[in-house]
Amino acid sequence: MKSTNQEEKFQRGISHFNAQEFFEAHEVWEEIWLVEAEPEKTFLQGIIQIAAAFHHYCKGNTDGTESLLAAGIVKLSRFPSNHRGLAIEELRSAAKHWARGVGNGERLRRSEIPQLGWSTTRSTSPEGLGSKDR
User: Fold this and answer.
1) What is the separation, in whole angstroms, between the first and last Cα of the chain?
2) Domains contained in the chain, CATH given
3) Alpha-carbon distance 78 to 128, whole Å?
4) Closest CA to 78 of 14, 10, 35, 133
């Protein structure tokens, strides 16, 4: 993230995601994604895909949910457990659980949709991606 405006949008996206306003989170993060450079572009795409997956789930589209979760998990697998202050490993694990459950035809409760949590350990910057802490 380069500007204060982008950081504010990123934070707003987190608030939307955690309020289960997944479409809004997707829209805000996409504004940043369009102008962001790698590797942050891939990170943003991963969380956008997971937000979109839960949006589809809430609308009853389980096929879209499963495929978007899988795509988001792959994108986020390139990043450390803790990235940009967020507990990314927890999000990946929850997304994997949801992808398996949806794929198995389970009816998971909306109240079980994960939130983007803050990491309790030091965040890794994009420049530190060579030494992943996963």
Assistant:
1) 22
2) 4-106 (1.10.3450.10)
3) 12
4) 133
- Provide the greatest CA pair distance for the chain: 43
Tell me the two tokens of residue 63: 């096929």
Cα separation, 132 vs 58, whole angstroms:
33
DSSP SS3 for 63: helix
Helix (H, G, I), strand (E, B) or coil at 69: helix
Q: What is the pTM of this model?
A: 0.88
Measured between alpha carbons, how far is 35 from 30 in angstroms, rounded to an integer? 9
- Per-residue burial over 79-108, b if 16 or more Cβ lie within 10 Å, else e, is bbbbbbebbbbbbbebbeebbebbeeeeee
Per residue in 2-16, pLDDT tens? 689 999 999 999 999
